[in-house]
Structure formats: C-alpha cells, structure tokens
Amino acid sequence: MIVTVAGIVARLSGSPIPGALDVTELSIAIFAFLGAAYAQRLAAHIRMDIVIDRFTGRPRYLVEALATFAGFLLVLVLIRYSWDFFLNAYTIGDTTPDADIPTWPAKLCVPIAFTIWAMRLALEVVGFLRLVIWPDAEPVAVPKVMTPAEEAAHEVESLREHQEDAR
Description:
Elements: H1 2-12, H2 20-41, H3 49-52, H4 57-92, H5 104-133, H6 148-166
Helix pairs in contact: 1-2, 2-5, 4-5
C-alpha cells in the first residue's frame, strides 16, 4: 500500500516511480495467497452452511471432514501447477515488463502458500475425523463457525474490552 500511495503521489507530481506498479502487482500475489491458510483457520472462506447446518453431531463432523478433504485435494492440485508456473518463470528468467523485476520470488510464494494451506486443511480433516469418533470431545484444530448473532456479540465484546484497555 505504501508503494501504491507513493506511486500515485509521485505520478501526480509529474515524476512517477519506475516499477511502482510492478512491485504492487507482485505483492498482491504474495499477500493474497499467504492469507488463504489464515482465512481457513478463521472459517472466513465461503462455506455451504445451508447444507452443513442441516446436520448435527457425527453426521455434521463427517460432512465437514469430507468437504475439507475435497478442498485439500484441490489445493494439492494447485500446489502442483503453481510449482510448474514458478519453475517456468525461474527457468526463463521472467521479469516484469516495466522495471525488469524478476517475477519468480512472488511466483514461488504461491506454491508455498498453497502448501501451508494444505497443511491447515490436513489438520482440520484430522480434527473433524476425531470428532466423528468422539463427538463429545473438545474441538481441536477445527474452525469455530459462528452464527451472525454470535459473531456480532463477539465483536461487541471485543470493542468493550478494547475501550476498557484504552482507559
């Protein structure tokens, strides 16, 4: 964001920063893909709650495990092809068109991020299968999905704590 703002200010002043757009484009890939595993942990990805909410107990945990395993398989495929994409960029010495910045470091972040995401998904599959076997156990390594009302109550409580800490 700093590079983008600096690039805009420099462009408005008549002296653009060479390669600012290239750096911004490369950083978007890095931040977008590295955030995927974290979003998975927070259950922030799009979910099929309409279907999953119809189940409770063991059946729900089994459906969650199967859906998470399907996501895991998809991410494994993405790791494979994003790795090939990185290798191609590295082999041919791919660079950005404007500032001649090598693109392979940003492209390497993609299979690394997918690998982290795959590990997160594998951990969740194990966590959900554990709950299939022991449905009364404390959930471990699975995201806590909150209803909109629970999420709003949690945000209100967080704001109250923040205001108390500020005093």
